[in-house]
Specification:
Structural class: alpha+beta
Number of strands: 20
Radius of gyration: 22 Å
Strand order of the largest sheet: 16-13-15-14-18-19-17-20
Helix content: 25-40%
Strand content: 15-25%
Largest sheet: 8 strands, antiparallel
Number of helices: 14
């Protein structure tokens, strides 16, 4: 068997022989000063393109301490988890609050498969904690570094026609409000705040604990298979109907897609092997560097790789061990969610536009499917959605997100992922989210002074 990475490296080496020119070495993006003039230390997000200098930082160790902090701390007060958001949800010159002191499982209900979890718990830590109780979250996102509060507040999602985004399985939560109170919310207790703040952008207060509707531990098979992109696009509705979880990564300028399917099985455990994705990604970058001057050469090399026989890989294990992945290479990202019926049409346009205008792009375009839910600020409110995510290496220019990709996705009635880049303001969002005005009304009622709003969120809510 020829390993995927080995074949690709060989092809890239062959391409190097054809190259007439190569890319110059790239410089790191400029870093902001470590301190501002007042001596405040810098905060940066994961990709490095956002930063700020909070006047105060806090890591409260109890719910009561969170509530007290919100009542008195310098504003704007912004909660932070893993810093994985690409939108300016976190930057603040006021107070930065981490929930790293509020982690772990509070209680569980074995019969109903529910667990109440402190909101600062990282998804990657929650998997093993729930497994010890015989439970697991029904679905997980591509990466699991986020805090539970951060993932819910930005409508973070996995994939699967029957599977909601993570907030869809939050059946109750407790939130510390800007007035300094602790409020319990579910479908019957404070139901409007529950519906508005389940995807709350950290703008309604700070979640302190969440009750999750989980599933029993389930053994699944994960299969990763490179295939011709044209075939995957043609079969996408059938693949979505057939598999429990399915997604694909379309690699621009290659005509290749990598499909990932996950289905329940009773087979013996076959643990996942070493993750090669980061290495493959860097080989795609080398292919870009050497052949971006002539896309036909780039495509030809990639097609030779496919013809050489890249074999699928499989693993069998509990779902929480296989659904998320390691993504160590930094990037920036835009993701929109369009009605599922038009996802393939929109994706074809996006890939064609990138291949026509952006020869520097080498990151794959990711496509997933998410079930409808009823959270007021959920991008999946009331409709089965197909997501399209476009990435750019953190050293590369990502302005094409806004100039080229976003206009296409907006034409298809796309709603932006709250944690990923977009340019929409309150008027745009009100036209896309049927309950946006209700959410804005509830937000203003719990935070009339705007203590939770930084400049970005004031534009989002028109406040």
């Amino acid at each position: 068997m020829i390993a995927r990475r080995t074949v690709l490296k060989g092809a890239v080496a062959a391409g190097a022989g054809l190259a007439l020119q190569g890319c110059a070495g790239e410089a790191e993006p400029p870093s902001p000063p470590v301190q501002d003039a007042a001596g405040h230390l810098v905060w940066r997000n994961w990709s490095g393109h956002l930063h700020s200098y909070p006047a105060e930082r806090s890591a409260p160790a109890s719910e009561e301490a969170v509530a007290e902090l919100l009542r008195r701390a310098p504003t704007p007060i912004r909660p932070v988890g893993a810093g994985h958001s690409f939108t300016p949800l976190v930057p603040t010159e006021g107070t930065l609050v981490t929930l790293d002191g509020l982690t772990g499982v509070v209680a569980h209900d074995a019969q109903r498969l529910r667990a109440t979890v402190r909101a600062g718990t990282r998804l990657g830590d929650l998997g093993s904690a729930l497994a010890a109780l015989g439970q697991e979250m029904p679905n997980l996102p591509d990466v699991n570094k986020q805090s539970l509060a951060g993932a819910l507040s930005t409508a973070t999602h996995g994939t699967g026609r029957a599977y909601k985004a993570l907030h869809g399985d939050a059946v109750a939560f407790r939130i510390a409000t800007p007035a300094g109170g602790l409020v319990d919310c579910d479908a019957t207790r404070n139901p409007e705040l529950f519906q508005a703040a389940r995807v709350g952008l950290g703008a309604f207060g700070v979640l302190t604990q969440v009750t999750l509707q989980n599933a029993a531990l389930t053994r699944v098979k994960k299969r990763v298979e490179p295939r011709p992109l044209a075939d995957v696009l043609e079969e996408w509705p059938a693949l979505v109907a057939k598999h429990r979880n399915v997604e694909f990564f379309a690699v621009p300028f290659t005509g290749i897609a990598a499909t990932i399917t996950v289905d329940e099985v009773t087979e013996a455990v076959r643990p996942r092997g070493r993750d090669e994705d980061a290495g493959i990604l860097m080989e795609l970058k080398r292919l870009r560097d050497w052949t971006s001057w002539l896309p036909s050469v780039r495509r030809g090399i990639a097609q030779k790789v496919l013809a050489a026989g890249i074999h699928p890989t499989e693993a069998v294990d509990e779902g929480w061990k296989l659904l998320s992945n390691e993504r160590p290479i930094r990037f920036n990202e835009m993701e929109y969610h369009v009605p599922f019926e038009v996802q393939v049409l929109a994706l074809r346009e996006v890939v064609a536009a990138i291949e026509a205008h952006c020869p520097d792009v080498f990151f794959p375009v990711e496509a997933r499917v998410i079930a409808a839910d009823d959270a007021w600020l959920s991008p999946f409110y009331g409709r089965l959605s197909g997501s399209i995510a476009v990435h750019a290496y953190y050293k590369d220019d990502h302005r094409f997100f806004f100039d080229l990709v976003e206009p296409i996705l907006r034409r298809y009635d796309g709603r932006p992922h709250w944690g990923k880049m977009h340019s929409l303001k309150a008027a745009d969002l009100a036209a896309l989210y049927p309950k946006f005005e209700d959410a804005r009304r509830v937000r203003a009622s719990v935070d009339p002074a705007g203590r939770m709003l930084n400049g970005y969120l004031r534009e989002v809510f028109g406040a």
